[in-house]
Each structure stands twice: as structure tokens, then as C-alpha cells.
Design a protein that fits this description.
By secondary structure, this protein is an alpha/beta fold. Helix content is 16%, strand content 41%. The protein is built from two helices and eight strands; from the N terminus they run βαββββαβββ.
Length: 128
């Protein structure tokens, strides 16, 4: 049986803060939210991929968890220059400044509220 990627689960410290980033700032639709045994869950859609935000009860959270250890989520966006300005205004942590090459992809690397790396990319339109 072939493996199929089901969803991305992000352990977050504050689900409301994470929803501001993923839903309000990146415009990912929320499919549903629920609470189970003190755990808060929010299911978002990013194209064909589901992202599950999971906030554990405070007494179960690991304060030493280092969330920026190699995981990078990439999202294609439109109007990356405007998005970059918006993120700076909202004081989002920028890990790598906006790159505006004349070919390939324009990119901006930011950190979400929990330190996960989020790469925003916009393909450069070329004239044929």
C-alpha cells in the first residue's frame, strides 16, 4: 500500500494566536474547531492539504519544545510585496527578507507565532 500524506499537525502554544496568523493573515479557511479532553483543535485547508493546529492543555505543554528545527511550510501567494509590508506592520518575525529575483520565485521567510518557518513564494511572471 502506498503512503498518502494526510495532514500536517502543528503543536501550538496558543491556538487563537495561531488562527490570527494562518486564518486571518494567510487566509486559510477553517473547516472546523473542537475541544477534546482539554485539547483545542482547529482544522484548516491549504489547497489539498489539511493543517491541524493542536493546543494541548497548559499542564501538558512542553515549554522547552523548539519548533523551528528544520520544518518549513511553503505557501504560494499573490502580491508578495504587499504581504511582506503587511507582515512587517503586524510585527511578524522575518527570518529572511523579501527576495525579488527577475526569474524563478519571489520569496519571504517568516516565523509563525510558535516559531515554525513559513516560506511565502510567488512565481515570477515571464514574457514568452
Amino acid at each position: 500500500m502506498a503512503s498518502v500524506f494526510a495532514n500536517l499537525i502543528l503543536d501550538v502554544g496558543d491556538i487563537d494566536r495561531s488562527l490570527v496568523f494562518y486564518h486571518e493573515m494567510l487566509n486559510l479557511p477553517i473547516e472546523r474547531q473542537e475541544t477534546c479532553d482539554g485539547h483545542r483543535l482547529a482544522y484548516l485547508h491549504a489547497g489539498q492539504t489539511e493543517i491541524l493546529l493542536l493546543q494541548q492543555p497548559k499542564d501538558e505543554q512542553n515549554p522547552t519544545l523548539h519548533r523551528s528545527g528544520g520544518l518549513v511550510m511553503k505557501f504560494y501567494v499573490r502580491g508578495i510585496r504587499t504581504i511582506a509590508d503587511f507582515f512587517v506592520e503586524r510585527r511578524v518575525t522575518v527570518l529572511q527578507e523579501l527576495e525579488m529575483p527577475s526569474f524563478g520565485e519571489r520569496t519571504l521567510l517568516v516565523a509563525d507565532p510558535d516559531g515554525y518557518a513559513v516560506l511565502l513564494a510567488e512565481p515570477v511572471e515571464t514574457l514568452n
